[in-house]
Design brief:
Layout: H1 11-19, H2 25-37, H3 43-57, H4 65-75, H5 80-86, H6 95-110, H7 122-128, H8 132-176
């Protein structure tokens, strides 16, 4: 293979690379931004796709973010690749912040105080697929608070992406002419 490492990474190093890349997180973020800017579509389509991906990342539906982002991008006439790249907003580093903010917003919107969850064995709940003990105190506030948070984050990323893509495409047209 042409671009293979001389010394393959160990399994522990591969896991570490997923959460903390050796070249740094900023390089990964810059790579995603460049990929978004270079997509061949209208600024609206790219921005709508990114906004759909970011908005869906603010919801607690882990495991369904790609599917939901594609559906939302389709409804908004957004770019599917941009939607997939937008879901990178939700990652292991940002999920605690997103879910914490969504929980606080949800508690406020539901008009109640934070509740303590009694002892719940998560493995037993998952084995029997019984989420009722977690629904009322945790999952419902995160879902209710995640929707306005998703709308806000999606709108902010739509504006930023639309402006960036528009400027990038205009600069490319000026260079070619």
């Amino acid at each position: 293979m042409l671009f293979r490492r001389r010394k393959p990474l160990s399994p522990a190093q591969r896991i570490r690379e997923v959460f903390w890349p050796s070249k740094g997180l900023l390089r990964s973020i810059r790579y995603i931004a460049i990929r978004v800017l270079r997509l061949k579509a209208t600024p609206h389509a790219i921005a709508a796709g990114v906004a759909a991906g970011v908005a869906v990342s603010c919801t607690p539906f882990l495991g369904f973010h790609f599917i939901l982002a594609f559906c939302l991008a389709f409804i908004l006439r957004g770019n599917m690749i941009a939607a997939a790249l937008g879901t990178a907003f939700g990652n292991p580093l940002t999920f605690p912040l997103i879910f914490g903010a969504a929980y606080r917003i949800g508690i406020f919107l539901l008009g109640r105080a934070p509740e303590r969850v009694g002892e719940a064995n998560l493995f037993t709940l998952l084995r029997h697929l019984d989420f009722a003990p977690l629904w009322h105190p945790i999952l419902k506030p995160i879902l209710v608070g995640g929707l306005p948070l998703a709308a806000l984050c999606g709108a902010v990323f739509y504006v930023l992406t639309w402006q960036g893509v528009r400027l990038f495409q205009q600069r490319g047209k000026r260079r070619r002419s």
